[in-house]
Each structure stands twice: as structure tokens, then as C-alpha cells.
Amino acid sequence: MHVTGTHHPRRWDQFTALRASLGSVNAMEAGAPAESLPRRRGSATGYTGSLLRWPDTDDPRSPATHSLSPVESAAGNAPSPATGELLALVLRACAEDVAHRPGLADLLDAARRRETPSLLRFLAWARRRGDAEASRYERDAQAYRRDARAMVTGWWMAARWLTAPAHPAVALLLKSHEHRAACLLRYAEDTERAGREERQRVSRLDTEISSLRVQQRPPRRTRRPAL
User: What is the DSSP letter of 3?
Assistant: First the structure.
């Protein structure tokens, strides 16, 4: 059983979470050798799995959140319900024990130093991808609105062909143009909303990238005042 520090699952620049792993020092980086996997007494089956524990950053007094990854045997089979429940309890108990130890701050600081370089590479990629997605949404929204305006123009052109009484074919054409224009406007609104959400996500990534870079810098030494 191993417990390591890691970043908060939703706040990449905050190292406040713990990961308890069966057999592996870090279940997110490499698989554990078969001989290191925990087994129940009298059984030759080793099990893998991990549990992530993180506190509520907005209210530290709230209970911590636990997220359990699938626990399975080395062969990829699910354990019995009793074994699965026992292993989940062990993972949770180990994470809680470490969370209340005096050396927690050092463990989380080591995680920050270990994970920050790879996190920065990942977040830079995610930011480029998010920026491209937002631009695509914005282009699509402009195209939908342009097509909707063309539909409205066509609607008025067909409307001028109406006579009294209206020809059924012209009325059907008007109805089709009206429906299509309304659909295009809804598509435009949906893609604009998706674009705004993506821009907000990119903005959060920028903030987290800046925070991680600041954390990478060595602390500045203050000059002692002269006597």
C-alpha cells in the first residue's frame, strides 16, 4: 500500500489531494509488479486499484471527498463484493491516516515538485486545444447566423410571390424557410454558448499555468537587516 500527494482533481495548481494505491507507488504512472500486489490471506490473487482523497477547498470543515478507481485482480477480473469492499475500506483508511499526519505538508510539497513539469506540458497542450475549439465554435456560430440571414432574405423573397389566395407551394416554401432559419439561430446560440464556456476554461487554464510557474520559482531570500 502506498500513499502519495497529488494535485486537486479540478484545480490543477493546488496540491491538496492524496492518492492511495494498491501495490504501485503511483498508480497513474506505472503498473505495480505482480509480487507487490496485496492479497487476502490464503489467496494467490493480487489486486490493483487506487483511491483519490481531496478536501473541500471552499470549506475546509466539510468532509473530504473520496473517489475510488476500479479495483480488480492482476488478470483484470473484478473481486468479490466482500473483497472489493474490504480493499476500498483499506484504501480509504490509509488515505485518512496520512491526511492527519504531521508530515502531510512535506508530502504535498514533494508532489508539487514532482508533478509540476509534466502538468505544465499537459496544460499547455490543453490550452492550445481549448483555444482551437473555441475558435471553431465561434466560426460555426458566425456561419449559422449568416445562413439564417440568408434564409430570412429568401423568406421575404418568397413572401413577395404570394397572391390572394396564396399558392400552396409558396406557403410550404415559406414555412420551410421559417423553420430552417429558426433552427440555424438555435444552432448559433448553442455554439456561441459552447465557445464562451471553452474560452472560460482556457482562462482558468491560463490562471493555473501562471500559478504553477510561480510555484516553480525558488523562494526569494530576504536580506537580513544590518545591525
Answer: E
